[in-house]
Amino acid sequence: MRTEQRLLEVLTECLGKLTASAVLQSRLARAAVDLDHLGPTDRVRLVDEFGKGLRTFLGDSPKIPPCLDQIRLILDGQAPDAAPAPVLGRKLIPIRSEADIVHARSAGRAMAVSMGFSSAWQVRIATSVSELARNIVHYAHDGEICIEPISGKGDGLEIIAHDNGPGIHNLDEILGGTYRSKSGMGMGLRGTRNLMDAFDVQTSPTGTTVTVKAFVK
Amino acid sequence: VSESERIPIVRLRQCLLASIQVDLSDALVAALKDDIAATVLRTGATGLVIDVSGVELMDSYIARAVRDIGLMVALMGVRSAICGISPGIALTLVEMGMDLKGVRCELDLDSAVAWLEGRSSR
């Protein structure tokens, strides 16, 4: 449907709205192709059809070649052989309540599974997401967690936990292991650092961002 | 936590058995703690097994909450054991520096019940 809309826009530039719509529909019907599942030969046939349609109304106008170029570009983006390899998307999860912790760690686990992390690493990653989400709920009350595939020194994933909370004023104590809150919450951050391949905290009185990474071994 | 979500606590002779087969939320753990305390009081059970073999993940908070259940019932005169911690969870807890000190851990339900009944071979 989106492809059809974009084709109509390109044709409208040359033909005006009514004519463009008529050309689009008649030529699509003649080519008898499914815009959502285009094969390589379908593209050639469609460009040919649109060329004929445009010439019917415009003769040999210099507008036609650039218009056809644009149509090729649109169709190329849709053709299966031109489509980029499927990329796992980034997941952004708002963290506001305890239920979001469960949601976030499920998402973390699902991405770890789909990227081929070992079962031990799946648990490490899901646990880290859980700890980071929990810190947001307990200390900042509102924030978000972004889980994203990355590639650098091998494939991996990056987890960014961000909040606009009051910041962590005793970060050194927490990471040094000398701090123990009554609820033992300091352990979450230190534990996460121990579990992951890379760990970074940026904190200020206006918010905290924790970034961790794990790489597929 | 609704009634249908609560973790069932079954009685087996003098033991109570809570088998957790779902993804643990904080609310669920808190409800379990209350339910176990109430059930111990009502039944006069002398042992408790918390089976976590169906749990895929325990972060530090959940691990602590489960441990606290064991410590709580100990104060009520009940011996307790946690069983079924998966290799992945065990590894993760150790790496995080989290231990379950004060609570007996057993490999599976069978060995946990054997230990509680005093016929453990270990």
Describe the 3D structure.
The complex is a heterodimer of chains A (217) and B (122). With 217 residues, chain A is α+β, with helices and mostly antiparallel strands. Helices cover 54% and strands 19% of the residues of chain A. Chain A contains eight helices and five strands. In chain A, helix 1 packs antiparallel against helix 4 and helix 5 (98-114) runs antiparallel to helix 6. The longest helix of chain A has 22 residues, at 119-140. Chain A starts with a helix and ends with a strand. With 122 residues, chain B is of the alpha/beta class. Chain B is built from four helices and five strands. In chain B, strand 1 (9-12) and strand 2 form a beta hairpin. In chain B, helix 1 (26-43) packs parallel to helix 2. The radius of gyration of chain B is 13 Å and the shape is globular. At the A-B interface, helix 5, helix 6 and helix 8 of A face helix 2 and helix 3 of B.
SSE order and pairing:
The complex is a heterodimer of chains A (217) and B (122).
Chain A: H1 2-15, H2 17-31, H3 40-58, H4 64-78, E1 91-95, H5 98-114, H6 119-140, E2 143-152, E3 154-163, H7 171-176, H8 186-195, E4 198-204, E5 207-215
Antiparallel strand pairs in A: 1-2, 2-3, 3-5, 4-5
Chain B: E1 9-12, E2 15-19, H1 26-43, E3 47-51, H2 60-74, E4 79-83, H3 87-96, E5 104-106, H4 109-116
Parallel strand pairs in B: 2-3, 3-4, 4-5
Antiparallel strand pairs in B: 1-2
Helix pairs in contact in B: 1-2
Descriptors:
heterodimer; A: about 220 residues; alpha+beta; about 20% strand; elongated; B: about 120 residues; alpha/beta
